[in-house]
Amino acid sequence: MLNTLKPYAREFKWQAILTPIFIILEVILEMVIPRLMANIIDNGLGKSDVNYVVRVGLMMVAIAMCSLVCGALAGKYGAIASTGLARNLRAGMYENIQEFSFSNIDKFSTAGLVTRLTTDVTNVQNAYQMLLRMFTRAPITLIVAMTMAFMVNARLSLVFLAAIVFLGIVILFLMGRVGPYFREMFEKYDALNANVQENLTGIRVVKAYVREEHETKKFRKTSELLYQCSIRAEKLMVMVMPIMQFTVYTCILLLSWLGAKVIVVGDMTTGNLMSLLTYTMNILMSLMMIAMVTVMVSMAKSSAERICEVLGEKSSIASPKEAAGQVLDGSISFEDVCFSYHGDQENLHLSHVNLKIASGQTVGILGGTGSAKSTLVQLIPRLYDVTSGSVKVGGRDVREYDLEALRNEVSMVLQKNVLFSGTIAENLRWGNPEASQEELERVCRLACAHEFIEKFPDSYETRIEQGGTNVSGGQKQRLCIARALLKKPKILILDDSTSAVDTHTDAMIRKAFREEIPETTKLIIAQRISSVQDADVIVVLNDGRIDGVGTHEELLASNAIYQEVYHSQQKGGEDHE
User: Fold this and answer.
1) Reported pTM
2) pLDDT at 193 over 70
3) Where are the beta strands (DSSP E) in 237-349?
4) Cα separation of 513 and 495, whole Å?
5) What gap in Å lies between CA 47 and CA 415, rounded to an integer?
6) pLDDT in tens, 508-550
7) For every residue of 403-454, which 3-state class applies, written as one string?
8) Which end of the chain lies in a sparser environment, N or C, as judged by fewer CB atoms within 10 Å?
């Protein structure tokens, strides 16, 4: 775990080194002050030497000011080092997440990743700052104060050793017990964030079905589980303070009682007893700081493990060493392809698929829900890798291509259309950052989007709200199609991406595809036969297997599934009329 986190702290190593150096200087200067105070009591006040009091007093002020400066510098450099670590961890996780394949993303929930990027990083940041400052200050204070105390009176200082051993045992016990509770607590945080995210994303559905009370109860239940888990952890941690206070007051009482006896017999002065009591407080405050850091580190350890899970996750899909950088054409070949999301040969989602598609062909893909239509096309840009067999594009296995080169030649409009915050033009230029206004308008005309865009007051500069909530489902689909076309791909995949547009607009989009991009291979997943019946080839999928391949007329004559779908849709259309 430390080896994983170390590179992210390296940028601020000098700040991390300077922080404990200034802490050590601050502690040493602070520890001198009680000794000078003892000298003032014994040699100044005791002997009524005003000059001595003033001289040593000014020395104490100077030392206190130097200590203050060292403390301020330690705080400054500690803050820079810890916030820098947090910045680098967030950037490192975010960059690694961008490299994830779909398989990697499936391992983590969205809410879990958000918690890791926020709460977990903050916990590690706070713990790191405490380690640089308090965990440096506490041991150094402990050592220096113990040394000074033994110099004052070695026998009385043995009280501290007993206190240190006792508190050390308590801290080790608590660390061993509280760790699993913190781990469970962060998992409950993930669940809570997932609940909130789901509710806010689907707030329109919640209100449409008047399910506010149900959602509130669900949130309270999740929140209660987090509360109970937190209580279990806190019940252990609250024991620290009473135990610490008991130890502090016991030590003070013992030192006062034993110290009074030593003063009576003349083995120690009053000033020395005062300095010893001051060192007592320093020693015990150091132990309290160590206990606090221990609590924070226990919590941060669980967070750090979760962060390392993300940082250590390597993409299951990567470019080969000598990758092909050019896709020759849009031909596609599936050769005995089997696929399982879990890599399990006994539970295949695609089974022995063989299919050849020529470059420039229009291919319709039809099948019932769960027939693996989306799974099939996601293998083409290598969003997933086949479990066995091979998928070839342009005559090469997709695993031989550079990922960026392959995906730049495959435009995919996913089943769930996504638009990002920004203007319409900015969203479209995801397909080509250098596209001119004329190019934007051309692809929008192909996708039948130009007309409605022009009706907006700001036209192409109209801002899209988060998630595209200020455009309709059909408008969102057409914008996503235009964005995909802007890439000028060799292969265009439409995954049920015209389901929200009317049949007339659907027909116009298909006509534009035929006339404007004839050399682009087009794969169209659809529920409506009217969307694919003009395709060069139609593939019928059933339960992860190819049930039929042919033209509309051929399948209508020979394929039972196609016939059933066609007649049900025809009958539905007649009933509607």
Assistant:
1) 0.68
2) yes
3) 332-339
4) 15
5) 91
6) 877 777 777 788 898 988 888 888 888 889 898 888 888 888 8
7) HHHHHHCEEEECCCCCCCCEEHHHHHCCCCCCCCHHHHHHHHHHCCCHHHHH
8) C
